[in-house]
């Protein structure tokens, strides 16, 4: 009985401490998050943006917007309360993609390029998975049916998107 109470006490203290907004404490407890982190960020006006967080300083996040792969520094105080809490729970530092040119708020061109290629490759894998699922689904539909034609059209769109991402990766590697 005493042993169980002791373990419950330890677990509850650990959970309490891990919920604190202290990155150093979170790191000690092993709940350290690793960059890059893909997340939908919301600002104080309710606008949302899908982004990859690649680093954090005391008052800002280094992010790459998923839509256009543009990288920039986002002040934490512009985010919604929930996202501010999340951002402050992240460890200080970066994924190694921050430029060493003295300004830690800008990403180097090589790092942006390699990160963009990495994001493109993940998106290609996702699109290929969707394509395979649609191909399996396609087998259930008879020839000439509306459902088959719409599935084939969606597969063609996915293939075009995959080809576009591959072309972008090729261009970035040059």
Question: What's the short story on this structure?
Answer:
The protein is an alpha+beta fold and 174 residues long. It is built from 5 helices and 5 strands. Helix 4 (109-138) runs antiparallel to helix 5 (146-173).
Number of helices: 5
Taking the alpha carbons of the first and last residues, their distance comes to 66 Å
- The total number of structural domains is 3
Rg, Cα atoms, Å:
22 Å
- What is the SS-derived class? alpha+beta
Percent strand equals 15-25%
Helical fraction equals 40-55%
- Model regions low in confidence, pLDDT < 50 over at least 5 residues: 23-31, 96-106
The general outline is extended
Write the CATH homologous superfamily of the largest domain.
Answer: SLA1 homology domain 1
Order of helices and strands: HHEEEEHEHH
The major sheet is characterized as: 5 strands, antiparallel
Topology of this structure?
Layout: H1 2-18, H2 23-28, E1 37-42, E2 48-56, E3 60-65, E4 71-75, H3 81-89, E5 93-94, H4 109-138, H5 146-173
Tell me what you see in this structure:
- With 174 residues, this protein is an alpha+beta fold.
- The protein has three domains: 1-31; 33-105, SLA1 homology domain 1 (SH3 type barrels, Roll), CATH 2.30.30; 109-173.
- Helix content is 52%, strand content 16%.
- The chain contains five helices and five strands.
- It has helices at 2-18, 23-28, 81-89, 109-138, 146-173, and strands at residues 37-42, 48-56, 60-65, 71-75, 93-94.
- Strands 1, 2, 3, 4 and 5 form a five-stranded antiparallel β-sheet that branches.
- Helix 4 (109-138) packs antiparallel against helix 5 (146-173).
- The protein is extended and about 65 Å long.
- The protein starts with a helix and ends with a helix.
- The model is unreliable at 23-31 and 96-106 (pLDDT under 50).
